Write a sequence for this structure.
């Protein structure tokens, strides 16, 4: 499900998933400013200027018309503050997903809540297969994937295991190309 400006927003019990905008960069630079968030993915925290450039690329969309880049920031409703993000790269009826919760908001169940909400939102949008790549030593991420109904496949890519959830077909239509 998309809008004229990108993916549709969605909500969970405590989180509002807002479509990513370049204007989120300043607050997200603070949320993501912890080297520990990069333990399993590599890299270092990015400053607001670097995030603005990345968010501009992400919100412009994929150069491949068969692929959709859907990115949301996660706002904690009771605090009216951003706490992380979720994303999905959608091709046809398959989406590869990821989630990141800032260190200051970890341990409160937000990652599980966001991932479960994301998978449900994608299912409603016509996605039939959801895939995540989980580092074998990242127990918290594996627990999040399991809570969202994904299961390890035994398939590996770049040192991470593919986890997958196949959703029963409800419409059989492709997400790519929907308006």
């Amino acid at each position: 499900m998309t809008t004229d400006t990108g993916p549709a927003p969605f909500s969970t019990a405590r989180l509002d998933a807002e479509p990513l905008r370049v204007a989120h960069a300043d607050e997200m630079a603070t949320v993501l400013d912890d080297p520990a968030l990069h333990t399993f993915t590599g890299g270092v925290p990015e400053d607001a200027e670097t995030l603005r450039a990345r968010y501009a690329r992400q919100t412009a969309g994929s150069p491949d018309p068969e692929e959709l880049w859907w990115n949301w920031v996660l706002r904690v409703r009771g605090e009216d503050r951003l706490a992380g993000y979720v994303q999905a790269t959608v091709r046809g009826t398959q989406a590869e997903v990821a989630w990141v919760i800032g260190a200051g908001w970890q341990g409160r169940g937000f990652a599980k809540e966001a991932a479960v909400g994301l998978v449900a939102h994608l299912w409603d949008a016509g996605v039939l297969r959801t895939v995540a790549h989980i580092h074998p030593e990242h127990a918290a991420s594996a627990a999040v994937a399991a809570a969202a109904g994904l299961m390890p496949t035994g398939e590996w890519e770049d040192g991470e295991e593919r986890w997958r959830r196949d959703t029963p077909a409800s419409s059989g239509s492709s997400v790519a190309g929907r308006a």
Q: What stands out?
A: Residues 110-124 form the longest helix (15 residues). Helices lie at 25-31, 48-60, 110-124, 139-147. DSSP finds four helices and ten strands in the chain. Strands lie at 2-3, 6-7, 10-11, 15-19, 67-76, 81-91, 94-101, 129-134, 151-157, 160-166.
